[in-house]
Amino acid sequence: MTSELIELADKFAKEWHLSVPEQRCLPEGGIPADLLVRRISAILQSNGRYPFDWKPEDGFDGGLIVREGAVFRIYWKVEAGVSRFELKETQEFSDPDHASRVWAKRFFGPGFDGIKINWNR
Questions:
Q1: What range does the domain containing 102 cover?
Q2: How far does CA 34 lie from the centroid of its chain?
Q3: What is the pLDDT along the chain (121 residues), one digit of tens a residue?
Q4: What is the b/e burial string over 101-117, where b = at least 16 CB atoms within 10 angstroms of the residue's CB?
Q5: How many of the other CB atoms lie within 10 Å of CB of 8?
Q6: What global pTM score does this model have?
Q7: Can you tell me the distance from the alpha carbon of 37 to that of 72, in angstroms, rounded to the nearest whole number?
Q8: DSSP H helical segments within 16-117, as ranges?
Q9: How many whole angstroms separate alpha carbon 62 and alpha carbon 33?
Q10: Residue 19 and residue 14: Cα distance in Å, rounded?
Q11: CA 41, CA 100: separation in Å to the nearest integer?
């Protein structure tokens, strides 16, 4: 794994976007999921939340992982009306990597914003 790939995975984990030239530097299969999960987990452990600038009381469509003591809880919300969001489900994990993997698989799936996520590695 090259330092460039690690930097790109880190940027994608933080911004959910890579420029076209940056995307060209990715391997054919895309960002290795294990690397992306590690980057998400590092952000989560450093900031207590992922995405780090969201809060449980915010309106958002998607998932938010929050460290609450020894538990990592994912809050999944959906848009229930125009700019109105409702909690759909919560999941609890004791391991930040496991929570990060579940979040990434559900939120990014096989790809996001034209960037492939390689879950086969």
A1: 3-118
A2: 12
A3: 799 999 999 999 999 999 999 999 999 999 999 999 999 999 999 999 999 999 999 999 999 999 999 999 999 999 999 989 999 999 999 999 999 999 999 999 999 999 999 998 6
A4: bbbbeebbeeebeebbb
A5: 22
A6: 0.92
A7: 14
A8: 20-24, 33-47, 96-108
A9: 19
A10: 14
A11: 6
